[in-house]
Every structure is written in C-alpha cells, then in structure tokens.
C-alpha cells in the first residue's frame, strides 16, 4: 500500500472523532446542561451551521473573522461562513425573529468550527452549549446567568468552581478618556490580557499619569473582595469607573447570598469579542484554561437593527468532558439470537422499562465491551433473566 | 496544592537561582551534575522541571508547570497564549539584532525594496520587524549556527541574539540593526494564578521585590 493511501483515514489537525466512552460522556453532559437551562426557563433554539458572513460577525470583530471558515454560496455568490461562535446567531434570532418586547431567554447546543485551535490540544470543532438572556439591563440578569452557569457546572460534576468576575467598562473608561485608538488601543488591550506589565509600562509611558497608573494597575487587581477597595484607591475617579466598581460590589454581594463565592480579575477582558460590561469566567482544578465564560454584550443586537441588553455564557462540552468521570453506564442484558414470540415480548418489555437488551449475534462477543451483566435464558420453556456466568 | 516551576539549563537557571533564593526556594540538586529532569527543592510542595528554553511557554501554557522563566524572544515566537507575563526578571539580557557580512550594504538593500533573504531561528520576531520597516523578506528558518548563512551565500542577513558580539566578529559579520532588547520574563499559567493564588502570589511578590532592589 502506498503511503498516500495509508494516510487517507487521517483526519485534519485538531479535528477528531468522538468515540463511544467520550461520546456517552458528552451526550450525558449535553442533556444535563440543556435540562438545567430549561428549568430556568430558557427555550432551546437551533441556529444554522452556516450563514452569510455579514451576520456572523461585525467588521470590528477581526479576531472572530479570522477564526471563521468561509465558502462561497453557489446560489447567491455571496460569502458564507461556518459559525465560529453561536452567541451572535442567537442575538440575531432575538433581535429579528422573535421581536419580543420583554425578556427573552434562549439556550443552544451545537458544534462550531474554528480555523485555528485555541491551543495545541484544543479541538477546532468545539461543542458549544450556552444560554443568553435578552431585554434586561439590570444586575439581576447577570446574577441569573452566573447562577445558571454555576448550576450547570455543578450538575456536570465539576467539584470546586473558581468564579472570576471583571468589568470591561473599567478598561473602556480609561481608554476612552485617553482617546486611545487603533493599534495602540489594541496593543494595550492585548498586553492587559496577558498581564504583561513590562509591555504596558512601555506602551503607556507617554499617557497622562492618572491613565497610565490606571492601566498598569488593572492587571494587578485580582483576588478577593479587597480588590475592589484597592481599585477605588488606584483607579481615577471617573463616573464610569465608579459605576463599574459598584456593579461588581453588588454582583458579588448578590452571588454571596446564593452561596457562590466570587473572586475578581479587573483585567479579565477576554471573554468574547463583543462584550461591553460585566464579564466572568469559571476555572476548576485540572483544567489549564477557563471552562466557562460569559458576560454582557449590549451592542450586538444593534447590528441587527434592534439594540437589546444582553448577557449570557457558554461552555465547550468537549473541553469540559475530558476531565470528568464517565457517567455510570447501566449494564446491558444479552439476548439469544432466536425468533420466539415470548422472547420478543420479554425483550420489548425490558427495553420499555429502560434496560439495554443486546442480541448476541455470531460467536465472537466481548461481554466486557458491552458491559453486560445479565442474559436471557430459556429455562423450562420460559425466558428468564439470569446473571451471566463468568 | 503543589507548585511546579519550569526552567531551562544554563544562563537562565543560574541567574534565576538568586531570585528563587529570595523567595526561600533552594533546589536540592544542580541540573548540571544530575541527569534528573525533575528536581526537588527545600519545600516539599515545590519542584523544578528542566526543559528546553523554547519549551518553557508550552509547559506553562498547558499547566504542566504553573510558572516558568522564558526569554522575551522565546515568548514572542510562542505568541504567549494562555500565559500571564507579569514580571520582567531583568536576567539573561541580550539584544536581538540584524547582522550582515562586513561590507554588505544593508541600507542600500533595504532601500532598493527587493526581497531580502534572512536566516533566523526567530521567524516571528523577524517577520514583525521587517513588516514594520515595510521590507519584503524571504525567511529561512535555521536552528543554529546562523552566522554561517551569510558567509556561504544562504542569506543576505541574519536575525540573532547578540550579547557580546564576539561570535559575529569571529565570523566577519557586523550587527547593522537593533530589533529588540531581550531579557527573561516570569510566565504564569492563567488558571494556576486563579486556583493557586494563595501559594503563587507570595512567591511572585518576593521575586518581584528581589528584582527591584
């Protein structure tokens, strides 16, 4: 066999099949999370896998643009993209299709594709599950979304969750006051996310002292509640900064009442490409990255002609699943390969009661692979279920 | 929770030791005398791992180590995804420079606007540097002995680290342009900084204060 034909079965980089044990685990999680969202009143939507690029991301979303696979629509000649994020699609549904005036709660689960993986080990086809709340700009909406995310992660089996919250308004207030734009604004934003203090010091050297001090303080403001006091001391007293800090204070008090401990990272900006206010990320021991992220993005609907306050979160189930223990599998029952009305009736009633009944075909049968612990046997003209003799 | 620190052998290891000592951390063995890749310290819950300098960001990014020491040059090539780089340790300092054969008219070659052939290990930094200058280049990735490339006609120029300049001189090369100043940075895994903050924060603070004095 030539090398070329031997390699036909190889999948592209960072694209993989999901095999039985992993698939069972991911599907178990998908159902748990969607059920959890449903119990909070979130309705399931299924946006398409691909649509015109104009609605997948805005022009300012250069990073999301680069992450999107594109193709030409044979029917219209227009450029289409494979979704790299479902959130903007759900925002489009809320703004244009549902057109409700009050609060709309939507959830979704589906594959997205990225041109480039987020890390060497990340899949380029994450399975994104998330929930979005539209039409309410108050803190209670943010609290609800965070509580929902927290409940989802708990239900999924994540034992210790570290929740970090931040507020993009802090960076925006400083950047707007200093009238930062273009490359410099982007460079400062990038350095901020990496807590790259040496670089920030260089980039801000020519800025007014209050702004420089504010920008270089943000990456160091992380940890417990003490952070908010330090922030009030170190950041300039601008109205947007005062209001962002008070939002964070109120949010943490509300979550504390729900039994959710909150930490802060005031340079936490990287939740998404479109966030405008409170942002949050959940970390847990064992994962080298955030396992869930979200925040407020009040301006996305604008592009669809109807600005709506919005907040939401999303999780990559593939990333979440691989560190979690597999869900308990119910052991199967083996059935003989035999057509007999009584056997068929027994098999049907067992399956109706939720048992897995597998017909034994052929001679080679790996009982371990099927995880079977019982079998159906004929004893004195009657079909009965007995434990498998080892 | 235990802490793993990724370091590379040689200059970075030697110059990091006093900083670790300031934080009360002493390795129990030297990587030069021991062939072990995991080195215990005087703290039961802190260990060092010895990896190639270019691999330090990768180990830290994936949480195989919580913190590490990596050169600015290495970080630029890696891209820094998943890492915080809060502290410039001001160790292992040198400069990334463009160098050519003695007598090569670099200015004229740049002015002319023709594609310059550049050999380097630091392709990302070189690409950014020449893009900023508006010069088109053909990059040739090499893994060592860059100085040879202009001498045997493989490249017009090289981009390489220069600390004393003696290697350039010995090979009849001359540094013609400064790309960036390089020193080593402390890099921290983002999730580790959140989840192990109680242990990591004092360590980071002690190291940072050891530098400023």
TrEMBL record, chain B:
Leading EC class: transferase
Major localization class: cytoplasm
Domain of life: Bacteria
Localization in the cell: Cytoplasm
Keyword terms of this UniProt record: Amino-acid biosynthesis, ATP-binding, Cytoplasm, Glycosyltransferase, Histidine biosynthesis, Nucleotide-binding, Transferase
GO molecular function terms listed in the Swiss-Prot or TrEMBL record: ATP phosphoribosyltransferase activity
Every ATP phosphoribosyltransferase catalytic domain range: 52-208
Comment field on protein domains: Lacks the C-terminal regulatory region which is replaced by HisZ.
Similarity comment: Belongs to the ATP phosphoribosyltransferase family. Short subfamily.
Function comment: Catalyzes the condensation of ATP and 5-phosphoribose 1-diphosphate to form N'-(5'-phosphoribosyl)-ATP (PR-ATP). Has a crucial role in the pathway because the rate of histidine biosynthesis seems to be controlled primarily by regulation of HisG enzymatic activity.
Xref: NCBIfam families: hisG (TIGR00070)
Name recorded for this polypeptide: ATP phosphoribosyltransferase
Provenance organism: Parachitinimonas caeni
The gene coding this protein: hisG
